[in-house]
Amino acid sequence: MARVLHPQTGARVGPATATSPGPVAARDVLGIFKPRIAVSIMLSAIGGLAITPGALPDAWRTAVMAFAVFLAAGAAGAFNQWAESDLDANMARTAGRPFASGRLHAGWAWLATIVGLLAFAVGVAAAALNPWTAFYTFMGAFTYAVIYTVWLKRRTWLNIVVGGAAGSFAVLAGSAAVDPGLSPEAILLAIVLFLWTPPHFWSLAIAAHQDYEANLVPMLPVVVGDVVCAKVILAHTVALCLIALLPAVYGMGWIYLAFAAVGGTLFTAASIRLVMWPTKRRAIHNFLASLAQLVLLLSGIVVDRWLLGSPV
Hints:
Order of helices and strands: EEHHHHHHHHHHHHHHH
Structural class: mainly alpha
């Protein structure tokens, strides 16, 4: 079946994506901002706040910090879709996105809206908290939108390695809301997030190997193959899960340690299975296990701080 031109970009796309734009739905507008990723980034910031020694900010300041990070992450996600509508249109996993499908027009008005949203988020963080919280909030969005999306993604397999710093900056934004100085606990959690992002995304990239290869995107599975990539994923997983235990040495309590140990065990076990059977199905299982590990880790931080008052 012949391929046709994408209505926005002129890229050659399959017939499933070459549909006429229909009525704009609220879910399309919301979907541009990748809300699920924005929520995970926001939770990372809350984890950074809870793991940092010191008096917590007032509830409203904490809420403002979380909201600002959420908005900044959403702006970065929207820019990613705006800048990559041509690539998204050629990939089965992303062809249905609003810009890629043509349901929404990726014009300059959207870029202005995205930049304005990021500026608002950073300004709110600076006004309600402090300049360091605002700086880290901005850097998280900038890393994902510009360094990862524009500069590295289509050039090098290191794209998502460097892009992992986006989650680390979210941790630092939350930590700075408590204390602009960097505590050992916050630094360790930032390192964990930095190491977590590559195996999380590489697992998804194994499942979408053919799409990335066909579109010349140098994700690690495309560059070295799924078998080698699975081994690299396991190495990252073991490293981050071991580092995730270290905050217990610096004052986090037994609740945190238990959550971190369970999450780390689940993620490591899934990564071992992926090495043994580097299939798309196992890659998706590992992707989901990475999400479970992150949720358990961040939940352990919050519950430990709430019930035990850690860190002390």
